[in-house]
Design goal:
It contains 11 helices and 16 strands. By secondary structure, the chain is an alpha+beta fold. The chain folds into 3 domains: 124 residues, 3-Layer(aba) Sandwich (Rossmann fold), CATH 3.40.50; 149 residues, ATP-grasp fold, B domain (D-amino Acid Aminotransferase, Chain A, domain 1), CATH 3.30.470.20; 68 residues, 2-Layer Sandwich (Dna Ligase, domain 1), CATH 3.30.1490.20. The strands form 3 sheets. A 7-stranded mixed sheet has the order 6-5-4-3-2-1-7. Strands 14-13-12-15-16 form a 5-stranded antiparallel sheet. It is globular, with a radius of gyration of 22 Å.
Length: 381
């Protein structure tokens, strides 16, 4: 039986969404195959583990004494260190992790930071690698990559919080020169539509920028599409072995898909499954084929692995890549069900991909002896 550590929570505005995804994963992992180790990272960044963390009610009003503190040393072969209170002081128990399943969303988890730690520990993990995770999290960097490989993206302007606070008039003028109203204002490193606003004039732009600057130091301002259609498609696999999912069309309650649309529309926190959608999306075959092709190209451009969801905006006959989600809400399992891949089977595949990726990395040579140290003389020249 494999020890699968499910990581969730974290210092992120998407903390609660991460909990929902983790609950879904732990409910659907096959208990006959896997020993589940929940690892909850609280809002301050402290790690906790224990069976009580598999129940949602214990996380709604989390108390540290409900679980045990734990940590992972940043070294090859590291095991999870669990702090256990004893009669005389504290004892640290070690627990091996065969695979890390990342149900993290947003900063400090989806952005490559946790992936980097797991790389140092040689622990297989289910999300994209460090570079793809960082690129997929940062909307500005992501658009540079996609534009560079010829994928269609909407025109935009990148703004820093420092420029907004120190040279607001010049920044507004630069935005208005580059883009017509309306525009979308998005924190560069957040998901789930948190901090996103749509501005139809200068006053609204200023208000939306104030909100976005509360969440991030870099802001993406992007031409808004009036009355867009939004469709999503996912990719699963690694390298040349990649499957493309069904295409969905989310049904919006607002001008854009808000946090409420995505996660609260079902009355309870059911994750992305609660979102109202058309599946498959009602699209001409040539549009569907283009969306599938762009999904595959996005996945390849960032060298993704595991599962990722790509979101598109349709404007008449034009298709634009909006963003890629390297750890999609609910692992995008609902996009695979039409192809006969259930949630549990999807998780099995993610675990297998994680292990295959780690085995492939072991084929690479990382050491190189140059002899430079034998020629180096310390001290003053």
């Amino acid at each position: 039986m494999k020890n699968v550590a499910v990581f969730f929570g974290g210092r992120t505005a998407e903390h609660e969404v991460s909990i929902v995804t983790a609950m879904q994963c732990m409910e659907n992992l096959d208990a006959k195959k896997y020993q589940i180790i929940p690892i909850y990272i609280d809002r301050e960044g402290l790690w906790h583990t224990g069976p009580t963390l598999r129940r949602l009610e214990n996380l709604q009003h989390f108390k540290a004494d409900q679980a045990k503190r734990c940590y992972l040393p940043a070294e090859p072969g590291a095991k999870l260190c669990v702090r256990a209170k004893k009669a005389f002081g504290e004892k640290v128990e070690e627990q091996p992790i065969d695979v890390a399943m990342l149900a993290m969303h947003g900063l400090h988890g989806e952005d490559g930071t946790l992936q980097g730690l797991l790389e140092l520990c040689d622990i297989p993990y289910t999300s994209c690698n460090v570079g793809a995770s960082a690129g997929g999290m940062d909307k500005i960097l992501m658009k540079h990559v996609f534009r560079g490989v010829g994928l269609p993206v909407l025109p935009d302007v990148a703004v820093t919080r420092d420029a907004w606070e120190t040279a607001r008039e010049a920044t507004v003028a630069a935005i208005e020169k580059a883009l017509p109203y309306p525009v979308f204002i998005k924190p560069a490193v957040l998901g789930s539509s948190i901090g996103v606003g749509c501005a139809g004039d200068r006053e609204a732009l200023v208000n939306c920028m104030a909100v976005a600057c509360h969440y991030a130091a870099r802001i993406l301002v992007e031409r808004a599409v009036v009355s867009p259609r939004e469709v999503n498609c996912a990719a699963l696999g690694q390298g040349e072995q990649v499957l493309i999912s069904a295409i969905e069309e989310p049904l919006r309650a607002e001008a854009f898909l808000s946090f409420s649309d995505k996660y609260l529309s079902g009355g309870k926190q059911k994750g992305m499954k609660s979102l109202k959608r058309k599946m498959p999306a009602d699209l001409p075959e040539e549009v569907s084929q283009a969306v599938r092709d762009y999904t595959r190209r996005c996945f390849a451009a960032l060298d993704c692995k595991g599962v990722a969801r790509v979101d598109f905006i349709l404007e008449g006959d034009d298709i634009y890549v909006n963003e890629i989600n390297t750890i999609p809400g609910s692992m995008a399992f609902y996009l695979w069900e039409p192809q006969g891949i259930g949630f549990g089977q999807l998780l099995d595949r993610l675990i297998a991909i994680a292990e295959a990726d780690t085995n492939d990395k072991k084929r690479s040579q990382y050491a190189f002896s140059s002899g430079i140290l034998g020629q180096f003389t310390s001290g003053k020249s």
